[in-house]
Amino acid sequence: MIAEPSLLDRYDCLLFDLDGTVYHGVEAIKGAVTGIDAAHAAGVRVRFVTNNASKAPDAVASHLRGLGVPARTEEVATSAQAGARLLARLVPAGATVLVIGTDALAAEVSDTALRPVRRRSADVAAVVQGHSPDTCWTDLAEACTAIRSGAHWVACNVDPTLPTERGQLPGNGSMVAALRTATGASPVVAGKPEPGLFREAAAAAETPLVIGDRLDTDIAGASAADMDALLVLSGVTTPADVLSAPAGQRPRYLAEDAAAVTAPAEALAVGAPSGWDVGVEDGVLRVGGAGEPLDLLRALCPLAWESGIYRASGTTDTAKAVVNTLGVADIDYR
């Protein structure tokens, strides 16, 4: 029997999100390591795509290796890199750029033949803003005066929060919001969910696949970049979130974690045939039959997305139990 093609057979480059996809805090996600090892063994290119602009690529790769994740510096793509390249298209070589962020971001700006500074002067042509735990009111004030004077403004990302061991803390997007309020301006965004970071990371690929755990950044960014996406449920997204995902945030594939890259691609696809009998009846998603919970979620997604109905009800004890397991029983998101 001929084996069905896996995601590794179908795609020539895998773009991995990090937090929630490759690791949780200080621990690697086992399935992600399995998937990354398999991709390397199959000769499929791997890229680690992160919205975090505070660390240099070599620091990100070193951190991943410390967690047991095989990673090389050249496999890392950061929003700081994307932000610096975006700046280079907006202002001429040698232009002065006010950096609100870490030294790693300043180094990326310098590497694109621009001159990073920390205080506003009359010749500042642009402001670039990335996350730093040391950003303070004085930094925002410098940026505010430059933006009000007409400087270009690039935000590496607009993530409102940053996941930490202490929980969700203010991210770069929260600082960007402060400047939006103070200036009345809006930045050009370099990172996810804008497509540029994905396109740069997959520049040499013909069939890239985005792998991530967030609908609003990973899947939305893949959609904007016209790339297929695998949503993994190893991070923040729940089955109920997937059912109610808006257009532009709907993945092609669903899996528990990134180990699924070795599985048959069609079995992972939304709408894949399964042992479940699903339909829309009396304003709910009716579920009968039997099978695996994730197969049911894949079967329900097309119905939910087309009908706008996001609550499910089982017609048998087995179906009811699995609907409850997924957390989509009799919940109305309309």
Question: What is the strand arrangement across the widest sheet?
Answer: 5-4-1-13-14-15
Shape: globular
Cα-atom radius of gyration: 22 Å
Total number of distinct structural domains? 3
For the record, the CATH architecture of the largest domain stands as 3-Layer(aba) Sandwich
Give the terminus-to-terminus CA distance: 45 Å
Fill in the CATH topology of the largest domain: Rossmann fold
CATH homology superfamily name of the largest domain? HAD superfamily/HAD-like
Which stretches are low in confidence, meaning pLDDT under 50 for 5 or more residues running?
A: none
Class based on secondary structure composition and strand pairing: alpha/beta
- Which CATH class of the largest domain? Alpha Beta
Helix content: 25-40%
Keywords:
single chain, 334 residues, alpha/beta, Rossmann fold, GMP Synthetase, Chain A, domain 3, 3 domains, five-stranded parallel beta sheet, 13 helices
Write up what this structure looks like.
With 334 residues, this protein is α/β, with parallel strands linked by helices. The protein is 37% helix and 22% strand. The chain contains 13 helices and 18 strands. The strands form five sheets. The protein has a six-stranded parallel beta sheet. The longest helix is centred in the C-terminal third of the chain and has 15 residues, at 293-307.
